[in-house]
Structures are given as C-alpha cells and as structure tokens.
C-alpha cells in the first residue's frame, strides 16, 4: 500500500532483506496466537525486523487496490456508525463498581 500512498518511503532494494529477516508465514506461527488470541502488540514482538509477510511481489497497482478496499471499508464503517445512536454504541453496564457492598 505504501508503494501507492508514498513510494518514496519504500526501499524496494531491501524487500528481500525485509522478508528474510521477518516472518513470512506468520498466520501459522505457534508464537503468534494462543487459544485463538493474538499474543503480541506489535509485529516487532515476533520478528527480528518487524516485518510480517513477503512484500517482494508488491506493486503500486496492488497497493492502490488495497488502499481503495480499505477506504471503502472505512467509509462503510463510518456510515454505519453515523446511523446509530451514541447511547447504543456505548458499553452496557456489566460490572458492579462496588461488589459486595450494600446499597
């Protein structure tokens, strides 16, 4: 996506190094998930260089398609949120702030 958004930030001559120092098949990594939950905050927690996946076949055109798809999803989410009442979006009370106390 960065090849589309800001190609000057992409070091195309280092894509293979990024892949080789990263984690190409991260979805099947035993360390990435525990009981279905991601157990890392950032990709650098799982790889030497913070790279997940293989970007060696990336192109600005693929990046544009990803960008457009992400933009469409964001617009859909915002339109969905706009159609909701604020109160309906807030968490419902579910924890007693004073457990064991008598009121």
The structural class is: mainly alpha
Q: Could you report the average pLDDT, rounded to the nearest whole number?
A: 84
Which spans of ≥5 residues are poorly predicted at pLDDT below 50?
none
Q: How does the major sheet shape up?
A: 2 strands, antiparallel
Q: Tell me, what's the shape?
A: flat
Q: Give the N-to-C terminal Cα separation.
A: 56 Å
Separate helix tally: 4
Strand tally, please? 2
Round the Cα radius of gyration to an integer and report it.
21 Å
Order of helices and strands: HHEEHH
Helical content band:
25-40%
- Total domains: 1
Main-sheet strand order equals: 1-2
- Strand percent estimate: under 5%
List the helices and strands and how they pair.
Blueprint: H1 2-5, H2 15-21, E1 33-34, E2 37-38, H3 60-82, H4 86-89
Give your account of this protein's structure:
The structure is a single chain. By secondary structure, the protein is mostly helical. The protein has one domain. It is about 35% helix and about 5% strand. The protein is built from four helices and two strands; from the N terminus they run H-H-E-E-H-H. Strands 1-2 form a two-stranded antiparallel sheet. It is flat. The protein starts with a helix and ends in a 14-residue tail after the last helix.
Give a brief description.
The protein has 103 residues and is mainly alpha-helical.
Q: What labels would you give this structure?
A:
4% strand; 103 residues; 37% helix; flat; two-stranded antiparallel sheet; mainly alpha
């Amino acid at each position: 996506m960065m090849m589309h958004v800001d190609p000057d930030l992409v070091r195309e001559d280092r894509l293979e190094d990024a892949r080789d120092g990263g984690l190409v098949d991260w979805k099947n990594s035993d360390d990435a998930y525990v009981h279905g939950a991601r157990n890392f905050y950032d990709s650098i927690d799982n790889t030497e260089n913070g790279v997940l996946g293989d970007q060696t076949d990336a192109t600005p055109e693929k990046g544009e398609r990803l960008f457009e798809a992400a933009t469409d999803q964001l617009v859909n989410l915002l339109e969905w949120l706009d159609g909701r009442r604020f109160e309906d979006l807030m968490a419902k009370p579910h924890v007693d702030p004073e457990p064991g106390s008598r009121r």
